[in-house]
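Issue 218. Parser rejects a valid record. Input:
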Amino acid sequence: MSADIEWQKSSFSGGGEQCVEVSRQDEEILVRESDDPHAVTRTSRSKFAAFIQGVKAGEFDHFTQ
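Output the parser choked on:
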């Protein structure tokens, strides 16, 4: 991974080391866990937007209960 990629952590992470980070590179969205920064998942902006909509709608809440 290029060092010039600017990763963004969620404000819900509390500044800890174990959180999800997101970045954009060209037309792709990159996602990684801060404790394993070399394992990066890439997806399209439209697919990531659909995922975020699902999160906001509560479609994944059962994973955290």
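Fixed in the parser; the record now loads. The helical segments are 45-56.
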